[in-house]
Structure prediction request, 51 residues.
Amino acid sequence: MIRQVARRRQANRQEPLVEDPRKPVRDTRTRNRVFLMTVVAAIVVGFWLTR
Prediction:
């Protein structure tokens, strides 16, 4: 079992040497902010509707 854990850790270390040029570059900070704003808006509207 210890060997399996060690193998998994080694497998996770392997990173792709060359990134796929077909993949679009994503701005995760903006996506996270939009997601957070959407969640906050949904919560606010939910509280407003339950009043």
